[in-house]
Amino acid sequence: MSVRHALLALLSEGPKYGLQLRQEFENRTGDVWPLNTGQVYTTMQRLERDGLVESDPADTFEGPQKKYQITPPGSQELDTWLRTPPGADAPPRDELVIKVLVALRLPGVDVPEILQAHRRHTVAQMRQYTRLKEDAPQDLSLLLVADAQLFRLESVVRWLDAAEGRLKHHSLDELRVADETLRLPAREALR
Predict the structure, then answer these.
(1) 16-17 β-sheet, strand order
(2) Which residues, including other chains, have CB under 8 Å from residue 15's CB and lie 6 or more apart?
(3) Cβ(67)–Cβ(16) under 8 Å?
(4) Backbone angles phi, psi at 2, to 5 degrees
(5) Which residue in 9, 105, 107, 150 has the fewest CB atoms around it within 10 Å?
(6) Can you name the residues that pair with 16 across neighbouring β-strands?
(7) To which H or E segment does residue 69 belong?
């Protein structure tokens, strides 16, 4: 997620102090993604350096906190970011996928049990997000975040199901000694 752009979005509503930006960021994201105060100020310094925000000239407070406002180039950057689809350059390095791929090559590892352990954990997370939605039916930000997480987790369960199905059709012993050169053309196609 782009904290940089989220902060620009908050500043598009009007000038704000760094602590105010952190609090509003967390409120808008349903308090699911905590933001470190130091990260806010570091990001604001970079945005100011890049000319996307500036210290509010009307702010007469003489303390360590600055009140920031978005600049016209910052508004343009925000608009471009909002309208640009996320990149799909290469397959992401998903830790779960990496664990399963590594486990496939390790002798004595019960890969189906690893898949089941991750399925149990993912389903438990889905239950937590479902309860979260039930506890805050009027909090639109929280509902949207919970829905996004539930859809993401659902896709993890679907992938675990697919992986389990593939394991039933392949011998792990054969896979563990397979010739790497047979898979090179397929891997090149992913890059």
Answers:
(1) 16-17, 67-70, 53-55
(2) 56, 58, 59, 67, 68, 69
(3) yes
(4) -95, 100
(5) 107
(6) 68
(7) strand 67-70
Percentage of residues in the chain having pLDDT higher than 70: 79
Buried b (16+ CB within 10 A) or exposed e, 67-85: bbbbbeebeebbeeeeeee
Task: Give the integer Cα–Cα distance in Å for 174 and 101.
Answer: 14
Q: Are 164 and 115 in contact (CB under 8 A)?
A: yes
Say how far apart CA 19 and CA 101 lie, in whole Å: 43
C-alpha 76, offset from chain centre:
24
Overall pTM > 0.85: no
- pLDDT tens across 163-181, in order? 999 988 887 666 555 534 4
Distance CA(179)–CA(157), nearest Å, equals 30
C-beta of residue 25 within 8 angstroms of C-beta of residue 7: yes
Best-predicted range by mean pLDDT (36-40, 130-134, 141-145, 168-172): 130-134
Q: How far apart are CA 75 and CA 53, in angstroms?
A: 9
